[in-house]
Amino acid sequence: MRKDKVQAATLIVQIPIKEVFIFVIGLIVLTVLIYSTWSDDISSAIGNVRGSTGLVRKNRQPSRIPPTPIILSCPTDTAITCNQTPNNVSSTTPLPSASQNTKAKHNSFASPSCPDFFRHIHEDLKPWKSTGITKEMVDSARQFAHFRLVIINGKAYHEQYKKCFQTRDLFTIWGILQLLNRYPGRVPDLELMFNCEDPPMIKKSNYNSSAPPLFHYCKDESALDILFPDWTFWGWPEVNIKPWDLLLDELKNTTESLEWKDKIPYAFWKGNPSGIGAREDLMRCNPSNEHDWNARLFNQDWRRETANGFTDSNLAKQCNYRYKIYIDGMSWSVSEKYILACKSPMLLVTTRYIDFFTRGLLPGKHYWPINSNHKCESIKFAVDWGNTHLKEAEDLGTRGSLFAQQELSMENTYDYMLHVLTEYAQLLTYKPTPDKANNICIESMACPATGLWKQFMLDSMVRSTYEFEPCSLSPPFDIEELNAVARSKEEYLENIEKMEKGTAV
User: Fold this and answer.
1) What is the pTM of this model?
2) Structural domains of the chain sorted by starting position, each given as residue range(s) with its CATH number in brackets
3) CB 194 within 8 A of CB 156
4) What Rg, from alpha-carbon coordinates, does the chain have?
5) 3 state SS of 391
6) Distance CA 204, CA 94 (A)
7) Torsion from C-alpha of 437, 441, 443, 449, nearest 10 degrees
8) Phi and psi of 211, rounded to 5°?
9) 58 falls in which pLDDT band (50, 70, 90)?
10) Which residue of 29, 101, 153, 338 pairs with 188 in a disulfide if CB–CB is 3.0 to 4.6 A?
11) Secondary structure of 203-253 in the HEC alphabet?
């Protein structure tokens, strides 16, 4: 024992005093950055949260359309047909006229501003701002699309081009039908093409002008895809992941029943690493005889889970770790919102991909960045830091959870859908027509469905027209604002990297 102490003391003496001083000062600076760079009144925010709707409805103006029940009627002895009234809103509902779809009319009552990440809608549509979107442009997107969707007078028409993986298209379309019921008469006439696979499709480098407008779940800086909420907001039956509203409540109840300091003090990840280089590399960070990188990583075998009735894949039960790791899949992953909601700091392995809401996340405010080039060392540093700065780490997890509960509520998700479709429709230079597309409605989708597919449709179904006005979309970012946010993110990542290197002294 004495020999070990002498060796340890000798090792410490060998480290230059100047480097030790710099490292200690650096840790102090990092603590200040984490705790105060993104200043939030956390205690006030926590006190105001009520489930997934609390602050979202605050100060919203009542809708001029009285709340009206949405009726799902499945015939037992006749063929399913879509009613004349859009999506079976009660026939007594006073639907707005086509002229009431204009932004000016619907903004006559001031509503609170939408979350800042909504402003990226303008950036997504910027390539077509000066030219408008022609019929030829939309048709040119067909080669990338899985389906075409047309909305006319509040009714939806669908044309399938090719099969999506599992039922991504089914639940995406179901979500759009819910939007039409939630805000009857608000969605302008439009025609769009939708891709529901993982990688971005429309590369900037391939187009000088007249790029195909294509809706999609994710993109990177090299792509022009128009971002839209993914299918899992209405459920993912193939892997038994419930609609976001229900799952968000489960996650919230779980986190409230467990003190953060009592959580398992490691970084957790569970998923399918097979064939995905970054994830396979992450699995090296599991404990070994040589290292313990503070990570506990598990392979998710979905085939076995399906056979076992999903007994070991409850997302809420995975919130019992202090830290949760996010890492991309084939491109981005839908898991990010579930990880954020756990009230455990999200350790985000740096990624080039974005979806519609991740543009609102800031390092140090909502997550801790993990260097993708040396994941294990970066994870160990993050967990060590958090376990020695418990209050700061807990607050980081709280801010991420509040973002999921408030900014990413279904209220805001539907409002994002409304605004991106409205802004898109205003760019169309022609009047859309159904052509070969078939009329679809909640009856034609939900009535023939079975099992979890039917259950999740019923669970996520809008039951009434919305009683409040949508949030107000703010103007586009100017270049100074975009540059300022980019610089802040870059500086924060650089500071974290310097501190990680400091531990190797």
Assistant:
1) 0.86
2) 16-52+243-408+489-502 (3.40.50), 112-238+417-482 (no CATH)
3) no
4) 25
5) helix
6) 44
7) 70
8) -65, 145
9) low
10) 101
11) EHHHCCCCCCCCEECCECCCECCEECCCHHHHCEHHHCECCHHHHHHHHHH
Beta bridge partners of 297: 269
Q: Report residue 270: phi and psi, to 5°.
A: -140, 125
Terminal C-alpha separation, the chain: 25
Which two structure tokens, joined as six digits, stand for 1?
Answer: 């024992």
> CA 219 to CA 305: how far, in whole Å?
30
Q: Which amino acid is at 92?
A: T
Tell me if residue 346 falls in helix, strand or coil.
Answer: strand
pLDDT tens digit string along 72-125? 999 887 778 886 455 445 444 444 433 344 443 444 457 899 999 999 999 999
Find out whether 235 and 460 touch, Cβ atoms under 8 Å: yes
pLDDT in tens, 337-347: 999 999 999 99
Instruction: Give me the sheet containing 190-194, strands edge to edge.
Output: 226-227, 215-216, 190-194, 147-152, 155-160, 438-440
Both structure tokens of 320: 């019992």
Provide the angle, in degrees to the nearest 10, between the axes of the packed helices 479-502 and 375-388: 90
The one-letter amino acid at 438: N
DSSP annotation of 37: T
Q: Which residues contact 142 (CB under 8 A, 6 or more apart)?
A: 148, 161, 193
